[in-house]
Structure formats: structure tokens, C-alpha cells
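Q: Hi! First time asking for a complex rather than a single chain. Here are the components, and I think there are four in total. Is that enough to go on?
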Amino acid sequence: MTPEKTVARLSLYRRFLKLMRDEGAHSVYSHQLADMVRITPAQVRRDLMVIGYSGNPQKGYDVNLLIKHIDDFFNVSESVNVVVVGIGNVGRAMLSYFRNGKSHINVIAGFDTDPNKVDRVINNCPCYHLEQLPEIVKQNNIKTGILTVPATEAQNIANIMVESGIKGLLNFAPTRLKLSSDIFIEDVDITMHLEKVAYFSSGKQKKIGGKNV
Amino acid sequence: MTPEKTVARLSLYRRFLKLMRDEGAHSVYSHQLADMVRITPAQVRRDLMVIGYSGNPQKGYDVNLLIKHIDDFFNVSESVNVVVVGIGNVGRAMLSYFRNGKSHINVIAGFDTDPNKVDRVINNCPCYHLEQLPEIVKQNNIKTGILTVPATEAQNIANIMVESGIKGLLNFAPTRLKLSSDIFIEDVDITMHLEKVAYFSSGKQKKIGGKNV
DNA sequence: TCAATAATGTGAATTTTTTCACAGGGCTTG
DNA sequence: CAAGCCCTGTGAAAAAATTCACATTATTGA
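A: Yes, that's all I need. Here is the structure of the assembled complex.
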């Protein structure tokens, strides 16, 4: 099965490929992609092997075709609807991040329990009371959620989401969610990332990395 | 040198240790920490080896002592000041994340170019015009920055930050910053994380992971 | 007192991830 | 047309990360 890291890098490749395409590029070499993602050309070629796309030893990879292959890998043809639960600062950022139509991923609703945030359009996205989540998630057959609530509430709300049919969570709450093992959880732990940076920028130790996540 | 991944996990361990301490726990076993961070007990023990803290085969690890050791590792005694550049949604989230005094890491200023955001206190944090960044960063000997500006501006602003003395960046802009190799860059690529979740929650493929970042 | 238990610490093994290094092949140049 | 380039694709090697597995050891309980 495709390793998580390859999946992650494929997503990055695609973004850069699209930028290149918009700048008029037609082909790209593995070393160019490698530069953009801070890895080695060999790694790029390895990753592309897993999606079964072959380039041309002279021209490298065809930008459009490669995008298409990665799109297929991510099954872009059917767009993915997601919900954001927790309309705080991070939640609002997520609403705007994924409401631009550039991606096949779209936030279709936000949820909160705060009356000031409910039944309104925030950052161009309709927001509802948490109570309405099960209904809306089921109706729209949503499988993916973004969780941006305080740590104390995260587990309860995650349970509700999973009961409603969510199969994967992007979790910003600094908590370990305990969910059935068939639920995919991606934790984004900002405090940890910042501690890393602080540690490696303090000059108390050698730099060893600085790769993408 | 301590690998990045170990540094990352140490940060996570510490957070959970503090939670446990607040709940009155005095000791903890490797398997408990492992549960919280979604790894194996052996991994936990390995990580703790690198900071040279030994537990007790009967009682496990002393929570307070272990926190203290990790604090020492991160050099918590001297607090770390950081700046946030770009007061959008993510930037505001960062201002509030690291302004609570719970961490040894504190945001001391935000920067933007938007007149509406400048020379005001936002989320309890003073915000200035970008022009003032070099001065403030130098005066306060700041080594760490959080970059939350649009991709198009990220490189320019990162350059300014580095010229002002910043040695490490937490970068949210979906761009590959090109900076001198002694600058530590931690990219947090939210689109990529969400694509991963969408991929693994679509049910089109087997689940293979769901680890912390 | 002594076996049984359950944890740590760690050398060794394993697995995963990354990199090397080179065969293959088509441009380009002289 | 042949030599030189500089790509890709990939087997094999290397490196990194993780896990195994067991010697060790304090405690418990009969």
C-alpha cells in the first residue's frame, strides 16, 4: 500500500506542478520537483513509480499528464466535501483555506455551539449548530472532518462525528483522540512544530533537517 | 544529534506528562506514554534514552522528574520569544495559541502591512507594521518566527526576517522558502494534511497509519 | 523466603525509507 | 555519425527508524 509519506509528497508535487503549469511550463525534471519539496531527485522518481507514471528521459515529466496522474491517484474526479467543527481562529482559517474552489476538497459547512457563530455565513461558509452535524453529515455523505475545538471537547465531538459517518479527521486539538481503528486521524500539533523550530533555531545544537512535514 | 522525530515526540510527551501531573499522577509507564502518542512503548523508551533519563523498572518514570528532564532538553529555563508575521486567520490563531503563558514560548509581536491591523493590540498581542520588524527582532534578539503570509509574499518576507536575525521559521505558506542552509524551516502544509486525510478516509485504499505528525 | 510479575534499558534484528549508481536511450553538436 | 550529455527507471545498497526480545531488577504475595 502506498506509504503515507508518499501520499503526502504526491500532494506537494501536485501543488507545485500546478504552479508551474500556470507559469506555462510543459515539462519538469525530477530534480526540479525535488528542489521544491526539499528532497532528492531519486525520491521523486521513486514516488512517481508508485503511481505508475513514466516520464521521458529527455523531457522529464509532462506537467499536465503528471498532474492528471496524481489527480487520479487522489481520485479528484469526485470532489470531496468536508466539514469544520469549531469556529475559532483555526476553524475560520480552515473555512477560508478550503472554500476557494481551487481544490477538489471543499468545506461545505462549519459547526459550533456558540450562538454567535451559528446560523450565519462566516468566511463565506454556512455555519450551523453542532446539533445539526449528524444530519448534515449523513445527508451529504461526508467522510472527512476538520476538528478545531478545544482539547477538552475534542473527544466528545469526535465521537459524534464518527457516529455520523466521518471516516477521517484532521485534528488540531492537542489531545489524542481514541477512535475505532478504522478511522484515520491526522494530528496537526502546532505547539510541537513550534517547539521544534525553537529547539533547532536556538543554536544550541546542530541543524539536522528542516524538511517538509 | 537528536533526530527531529525524537525532538517532536519529546514535545508531545511533555504535554501529556503535564496533563497527567495536573490530574495528580506521580508516575507513568512507557506504554501509557506510547498510547498517548500512538507509538510503541519501545519507541518511548528509546526516545527517553537520548535525554538520559532513567526510570524505575517498577514504578516507571517519575512524572515530575521526566518533565524536568524534557524541560532541560528544550532549555525551558530561558523563555523563547517569537514573532508572527501575517495577521490573517492563521496568524491570529498563532497569536492566541502562544500568548497564554503556559509555554516557555511566547509571541511578543505580530506584524502585517495592512493599516487596519497595525499599531493595535490583536488577540492580546501588539501588532506593528512589517517595516518595524527588523528593529524589533534585533532589539529583542528573536531567533524564531512564524510565517503566515500569502504564498506570493512569503519568500520576500522570509528574507527580511532572516536578515534581521531569525534562525528558524515555522512556515504556513504553501511555498518552498529558499534560505541559507543554516536556517531551520519547518513547513506546515495544511492542504497536504487534509489531502492525506481525504485520501485515507475515502475508503478507496487500506488504512495504513494515522500517526502523529 | 522465594517464585511470579511487570517494568526498564538496550543490543540486535527488522522494517522502512532514502539514496546510490548505472543501464538505457534519445538529443545535440561537431 | 559518433561522442557527450543528461535525463529516467530501478536493482541494490545504505541509512534511518522502529521493534523485538531478553537480561535485569524491585515488589508483591503466599
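A: The mean pLDDT of chain B is 92. Let me know if you'd like any chain examined more closely.
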